[in-house]
Design a protein that fits this description.
This protein is mainly beta. Helices cover 10% and strands 38% of the residues.
């Protein structure tokens, strides 16, 4: 249960996103059956979002705030912190554990 992080490349070790900051990431998302369901490569550019405020799945809110700028890691997120028993049909089946390879490219501090 929860979010497990396997580091692939260390970050700067000092620039961690805080609640309300914007983050710029690249990612590849797979389910626990190995099926890729999304990737920033599919969209042609990095993804930017506010973190820690419920704009993304809970596993991202919790896990990405534990990464530092420049870090690349695999986040394994249990279903209760992803899409739960409902899933996200037809893309994510119910109770799926999700695996994301994420690189934190930038952290843009909250303005106020």
């Amino acid at each position: 249960q929860g979010v497990h992080i396997d580091v692939l490349k260390p970050g700067d070790g000092k620039t961690f996103p805080k609640r309300g900051d914007r983050v710029v990431i690249t990612y590849i998302g797979r389910d626990d059956r190995g099926r890729q369901f999304d990737s920033t490569d599919d969209h042609g550019c990095p993804f930017e979002t506010e973190i820690g405020t419920g704009k993304v799945i809970k596993g991202w809110d919790q896990g990405i705030m534990r990464l530092s700028k420049g870090q690349k890691a695999v986040l394994t997120i249990s279903s209760d912190l992803a899409y739960g028993s409902e899933g996200y049909p037809p893309v994510i089946y119910p109770n799926a554990t999700l695996i994301f390879e994420i690189e934190l490219l930038d952290v843009i501090p909250k303005r106020c």
